[in-house]
Specification:
The chain has one domain. 18% of the residues lie in helices and 30% in strands. The protein has 1 helix and 4 strands. Strands 1-2-4-3 form a 4-stranded antiparallel beta sheet, with no helix packed on it. The relative contact order is 0.23.
């Protein structure tokens, strides 16, 4: 698998080549839907998913650094 990351300053795109599966894999699709919902709810922004025969790409907006978007981790 080859993973490529690129940015235009306002978004981050992650792409990988598609590798045919030997056997079908069940997927609920919850991961991508969760990311879509989080960006929409928190930032009012949409992600873009592009699937071709050879590649799979996800583009996400880069969020501004703000305490409003992030919850600090609690360390014990």
């Amino acid at each position: 698998m080859t993973l490529t990351a690129s940015t235009d300053g306002s978004s981050l795109t992650l792409s990988n080549n598609r590798i045919p599966k030997v056997a079908p894999v069940r997927s609920t699709g919850i991961g991508l839907q969760y990311i879509r919902n989080q960006y929409r709810d928190i930032a009012g922004a949409e992600i873009t998913v592009i699937e071709t025969a050879d590649t799979f790409s996800v583009t996400i907006p880069i969020l501004p650094e703000s305490e409003d978007f992030f919850v600090p981790l609690q360390r014990n």
